[in-house]
Amino acid sequence: MYNNFKKYLTEEITNIKEAGLYKNERIISTPQSADIKVQGGDNVLNFCANNYLGLADSKVLIEAAKRAMDERGYGMSSVRFICGTGDLHKELERKISDFFGTEDAILYAACFDANGGVFEPLLGEEDAIISDALNHASIIDGVRLCKAKRFRYANADMADLEKQLIAAKDCRFRLICTDGVFSMDGNVAPVDKIYALAQKYDAMVMVDESHSAGVVGKTGRGTTELYNLKGEVEIITGTLGKAFGGAVGGFTTGKKEVIEMLRQRSRPYLFSNSIPPMIAAAGIAMFDLIDKTNELQDKLHSNTAYFVERMKAAGFDIKPTESAICAVMLYDAKLSQDFAARLQQEGIYVTGFYYPVVPKGQARIRVQVSAAHEKEHLDKCIAAFTKVGKELNVLK
Ligand SMILES: *Cc1c(COP(=O)(O)O)cnc(C)c1O
Fold it and tell me: Is the N-terminal amide bond of 320 cis, ω within 30° of 0?
């Protein structure tokens, strides 16, 4: 059989390549940081990591992880409910709920698992999930695993959300779910308006704060801080793999009965290993760090404001953003790829996105700003964009 299957796979892969959608991975041989070395090239400034607070190579986190390895060993060799719960797991869960102002939290190996395991245990056939059209793949997959009726509204479109809430009015429970920040545009979900509609139509709200935690809100507590809704949103999911250190790990936090039920019934929690002690310890150290001082959050916010303002002044078309994601609109797919390749020659590492990752004719370069960037990094990036922009006739 494998001969036929091999032929089928080879053809499919050829199709992917011919459509220009084949993903090549560039290999990094330094720690993740502002200044990295990509194999086969010179050092480049990194503007495409989710390392928003610059903690991926933090000495504080590394030391905490090393100490935990010495004191608690390497792995847990168990799921949580058998013998995989350590004191560090409990402490990290407490830190997460303290940070977000929620009642309890539950850890997963990744936010992909948190989203994969949040809907099915909570909702059934008589319920409704009302989901933003641009929600992350892991929410889409999580919703697929659940028997609840599915409703979809156009990205951040409150009139459409209202329509869907009316359509779902006969269901037993209604859950609206949204990303906090949409990763391709950098726009923040209007969680204040979503929450108001939820009140009006008797629904609950879930926000995935993966790109907003550590970033949005004065102290980086995400959309519920930005909109003064701390403790109000029923369910928040998030990752430790972006602003919060960038290793691995995910969580769900919110109402205590929700978390209690997830501990009983959420399949990725019940049937998958618990995170290693070093990840839990580094997570604890991370929350202590960003609780103690707002330095990193402040630096990220001022870096982002500086970058966006200068790029606009240079003449670039930038999507409105309230996050650390800055979408530089180029519209043409080939141009986005040529532009990104030229930037890499100029020592700036960014990624160009085009259809089907973004809508047709909406190709762009996504720049992700970090607290790890110094002013001279930002200036070098803006200068390179300006140089290549003129060269490729994007700028007059
Ligand atoms: C990155 C991301 C995830 C996945 O997080 P992992 O912890 O890497 O699995 C989930 N949801 C959103 C919105 C994300 O951006």
Answer: no
